Amino acid sequence: MNRQRSFIGFIVAGAIAVLVIAIAGFYWFFAKSPANLIGSSSGPGAAIFVSKLSPAMVSLLTNPDRLQALEREEELSKLKTSLFAKSDIDYKQDIQPWLGDEITLAITTLDIDRDQENGQQPGYLLALATKQPEKSREFVELLFSKRALAGANLAVEQYKGVKLISDNSQPEQDLLAGAVVGEGFVLFANDPKVLRDAINNVQAPDLNLTSSPEYQKATKEQIKGGLAVAFLNLPIVAKWQGLELPEQLYNSQIISLVLNPKGLLAETTFLTSSEIVPPSAPLSKPVGALQYVPASAGLAISGSNLSNLADSDLAKLWKQATATIYGSGEDVVSRLAKPLADVQKRWGINLPEDIFSWVQGEYAIALLPEKEQTTPHWIFVVEKSEGVEKGIARLDAIASSNGLSINTLTIDQQKISAWTELTTATKKSDVKEGESFSIETKVQALHTTLGNYEIFTSDLETMDEILTTKNNSIIDNPNFKDSIAAIPLPNQGYIYLDWTKSQNLLERQVPVLKLVEVLGKPFFNNLRSLTVSSYGTDTRSLKGGVFFKLHNS
To answer: For residue 480, how many other CB atoms are within 10 A of its CB?
Structure first.
């Protein structure tokens, strides 16, 4: 196989891989030298090369060699060796001496030649910051000379004072173009036109991303000193996917990665020109409903007021995001929320109408996965408020209409209401030939009142755990405490996922997750939990964060 093959493929994969592997290594490095691992405070300098019509740009704002703590697992060394082996380039000798503190990858255009008849060919631009321009020029010359020796036909041109080198690639090779621009950056692209456009963007500032009002607003939300940042132009991302969204509320998104003493925070802001209203009033502390969720929970969702969730801007964001990724919001719901869909179908209920509509106070929803079971146990806690009693009565009526009986039982002197189903079981008779029948009672769900909360569970074992382990709730779990401490207050509540407990369940519900785990193996091997929340008070943006807690952090 030609060693020059797929160089632009390696560039794209390499830039993304460095970002993924960096996440896995941050927690090791943090313990050693937190002050030295801080990204640029001014954002990506390469944005001047990128068109303001670019759908996406992602940047690593620190030198990859500053992540050398990864060497204990040899992940970074393996990355460099495997990727650069294809190009016959020695990273340590040819790149390391001049590589600076930024690597930016952008999709610059959806179609390089703008000819719909020959299909879409996106333009890719990779910008590498250089601290020694002369050495980086030597590297570009070396790279293309090796491609020429491998059979490529080189083309050299001067464009507005910049030397561009490209090759007319053979069928088994990818087209590559490169240049050193000024004293700051080495550029690579999958077509010379992409480089020419990048140079035009610098010389005509109104063309580049820094002149975009959306980008300017987004960068104001960027965390200063973040180690990586990504910007998405959402309408163009949707166009790239060939989608026409029925509702386009949010125009752009910026994501920043920043270190935290306990892990890594990925903060994101969605921006809109419309006035938005949060689904509920912000909370200044974790909801009291969490005191009834056992520490063994693999997933816990908490907040307040589900009654207007369907019409909230958060729900509109969900529809827009899932439609952009999957092409349909319904597809992703069926994949991620299959247990809830099964409950709705089996009981004949509509969650927004029959449950969410009367939840106006605090709530907590939790899943307790078990290795032996494909369906996890569940808990639903709701604060008593106006409409709760009527809501419970409505659920009782739905249970009765489905042939369930409403019975009362006692656990540890606590009165419990149970929805039960009578079933028959057969067994061999010892008295005479044939079979005998017995009637068994199967509990479908239970609920009881504790303090100012109504608690629903899927089974007796879970209810018993809640009643008998009152001092072992999730709010006493050190891992949960550390995770929510990283989320700013006030906020809209939390989605907390214990990865070690829920991994098997998630893989069954979302099979593609296994592929994601393979690609990000160093990260997932060290992931302990993640916590999601939304916060912020700006009426023209929706801000939130995902906190990744890693082992040993």
So the answer is: 24
| Residues 404, 291: Cα–Cα separation, whole Å | 30
Q: Give the torsion through C-alpha atoms of 322, 325, 330, 336, to 10 deg.
A: -80
Q: Is the pTM of this model over 0.90?
A: no
- List pLDDT tens digits, range 214-273: 999 988 887 777 788 999 888 888 787 776 665 667 788 898 888 777 788 888 888 888
Contact (CB, 8 A) for 484 and 286 = yes
Looking at the chain, how many residues does it have? Answer: 553
Contact, 263 vs 269, CB < 8 A? no
Which among 496, 490, 495, 481 is positioned nearest to 535, based on CA atoms?
A: 490
Residue (of 237, 224, 235, 264) closest to 21 by Cα position: 264
Inter-residue contact 287 to 492 (CB < 8 Å): no
Return the beta strands (E) in 28-159 as ranges. Answer: 56-60, 99-109, 123-130, 153-159
What does the pLDDT look like over 82-116, one tens digit per residue? 445 455 677 788 888 999 999 899 999 988 877 77
Name which of 218, 172, 266 is nearest 57 in CA terms.
218
Tokens for 183? Answer: 């004293």
301 vs 319: CA distance, rounded Å: 19
Judged by phi (left if over 0) then psi (alpha if -120 to 50, else beta), residue 161 lies in left
Phi and psi torsions of 472, nearest 5°: -130, 50
Residue-wise over 405-439: b if at least 16 C-beta within 10 A, else e? eeeeeeeeebebbbbbeeeeeeeeeeeeeeeeeee
Structure tokens belonging to residue 514:
């296994």
C-alpha distances out from residue 313 to 85, 246, 279, 356, 539, Å: 48, 15, 7, 16, 11
Q: Cβ neighbours of residue 128 under 8 Å, at least 6 residues apart?
A: 99, 100, 102, 103, 136, 185, 186, 187, 188
What's the CA angle centered on 151, arms 145 and 152, to 5 degrees?
65
Tokens of 421: 């189903």
Which residues fall within 8 angstroms of residue 255, CB to CB, at 6 or more apart?
229, 230, 231, 232, 266, 267, 268
